[in-house]
Amino acid sequence: MSQLDPLRTFANLTFGKKVDKTAEEVTSATPTATVQSLFTIAGGRVLVTAIIGEITVAASGAVTLQLNSNPTTGTSAVLDTALTATSLEARTIMSNVGAVGSALSGVSAGVAIGPTIPIIVPIGAIELLAVGSSTTITTKWSLFYVPIDEGAYVTAVN
Fold first, then answer.
1. Total number of domains in the chain
2. Is residue 6 part of a domain?
C-alpha cells in the first residue's frame, strides 16, 4: 500500500506537475542572443503555473536573460521581458510573475516574487535568451504545469 505525501499532493493540486532542468552554463555574445532550450511541450497545450529559475554561478559580465515560447507552428512570443542579471549573485531566484510580456523577476538570493498569472503554452519549446558581451552564466529551472489537451506533457531539455 502506498502512502500519500500531503505536501506533494498539495503542491500538485496547487501548481500541477513539476519538471526540472538541471543547471547548465550559457555563454552570450553581443549583438546576437544565445538561445538555450529549457523545456519541450509535446502532445498539446499546457497551462504553465510557474517557471522558476536559479542562478547557480553568477554572470562573469553584463548579461540579460529573457524567456520565450517558440511554438512548432506559428510565431515565437516573449514570455518575460529581459532581466538584467549582471549584478545578481549566485542563488538568486528568478520567476515569471505576471502576464505574458511582463518582466522576469530576480532580485537577490534571499527572496523571490512568485507567479500571479498562469500562461497557456502551445506545442513547441520554452527557451532562455541570453544577451551579453562574451559572458557566461549558469542557471537551473523548474516548470510547473497542468495539461490542457489529452496527452499533453512537458519534458526538460538536458
1. 1
2. no
> Is the pLDDT score of 13 beyond 80?
no
What pLDDT digit, counting tens, does each position of 85-135 carry? 888 899 999 998 777 878 888 877 777 788 888 999 999 999 999 888 778
Please count the residues of the chain. Answer: 158
- Give the pLDDT band (50/70/90) at residue 49: very high
What residue has cell string 557566461?
Answer: 136
CB neighbours (10 Å) of residue 125? 19
Cβ burial 13-45 (10 Å sphere, 16+ → b, else e) = eebbebbebeebebebeeeebeebbbbbbeeeb
Handedness of CA 3, 7, 11, 13 (dihedral sign): positive
CA dist 113 to 9, 20, 51, 108, 151, Å? 23, 19, 11, 11, 31
Q: What is the CATH number of the domain that holds 68?
A: 2.60.120
On whether residue 5 sits in a domain, the answer given is no
pTM of the model: 0.88
How many angstroms separate the CA atoms of 90 and 155, rounded? Answer: 25
